[in-house]
Amino acid sequence: MPDYSQAEKSKGTLYNEGEKRKSDKAPHFRGFLKVTREQAKQIAAQFKADATRSEYDIRVACWKNQGDNGVYLSLASETMPPDGAPAAAAAPPPPQPKPQEGFDDFEDDIPF
Q: How many domains does the chain contain in total?
């Protein structure tokens, strides 16, 4: 079972083409789904992990909304890292200062 806490999420919107449609083959809705850099990395990792893979599923959810310009659909998408991939690492902690051996503030001569 996938670990959904590792899912990378993004959003998009589809707008009703309505009267703009010129034929029955034209789409009813058109818009964009934003793909984040992290999602692109996860998708690439899926293909690198399995060279025989020819496609990848992106989970998509959709909500129907009414706006000033008519009906539109809001989208949300999720991508998952490959199975067994380590969880996204947080920023590494800053390096600890190295102790200075033989340092004594009171014995240094500071010329002013």
A: 1
Residue 88: name the closest of 45, 25, 58 by CA. Answer: 45
Q: What is the pLDDT of residues 19-72, one digit of tens each?
A: 888 999 999 999 999 999 999 999 999 899 988 999 998 999 999 999 898 889
The structure tokens listed for 90 are 């947080």
Q: Is residue 95 part of a domain?
A: no
> How distant, in Å, are the alpha carbons of 18, 19, 20, 27, 71 from that of 65?
15, 18, 19, 18, 6
In this prediction, residue 60 carries a pLDDT of: 92
Structural domain including 36 reads: 4-82
Beta bridge partner(s), residue 61: 76
Note if the pTM is more than 0.85. no
